[in-house]
Amino acid sequence: MKRVIAAAALAVGLAGPAMAEPVLGVWKTQVDDGAYAHVTFSQCGAALCGVISKAFDASGEISTPNIGKQLVWDMQANGNGKYSGGKIWQPSTDKVYKSKMTLSGSTLKVAGCVGPICKKQTWSRVQ
User: Rounded CA gap, 26 and 40, in Å?
Assistant: First the structure.
């Protein structure tokens, strides 16, 4: 009986990392209005969210009140690297858009949309 419990505990422990959402981690945005950010994705309840963890301009890392603010929230994983149902904030315009994302390896294609018109960026994985 002890072996069965130990085997079950080991199986659960090994399954945990395999079930981690692939988009979790840190991503570098494209330059927008002369600056870019590192966005850290994590689980936020049943959804995924991304918080600005660092900001940069042409001279390097900068201090900004946007650090720690959510850039992406309510994002739902749909499988096969597709995400939808979220919102994304564009700091340079202070506008919020409906958002969707597509993950392919170390590239994350992010779109913020109003109706059929979308602004798109390609982000790259930092960690």
Answer: 4
Q: How far apart are CA 58 and CA 73, in angstroms?
A: 27
Q: Can you tell me the distance from the alpha carbon of 55 to that of 65, in angstroms, rounded to the nearest whole number? A: 10
Residue type, 31: V
Question: Domain map of the chain by residue range?
Answer: 22-125
pLDDT in tens, 20-67: 689 999 999 999 889 999 999 999 999 999 999 999 999 999 999 999
b/e for 1-26, b at 16 or more Cβ within 10 A? eeeeeeeeeeeeeeeeeeeeeebebe
Structure tokens belonging to residue 121: 């960026």
Domain 22-125 in this protein, CATH class: mainly beta
Using one digit for the tens of pLDDT, what is the confidence trace for 2-29?
443 333 333 333 333 335 689 999 999 9
Distance CA 120, CA 105 (A): 18
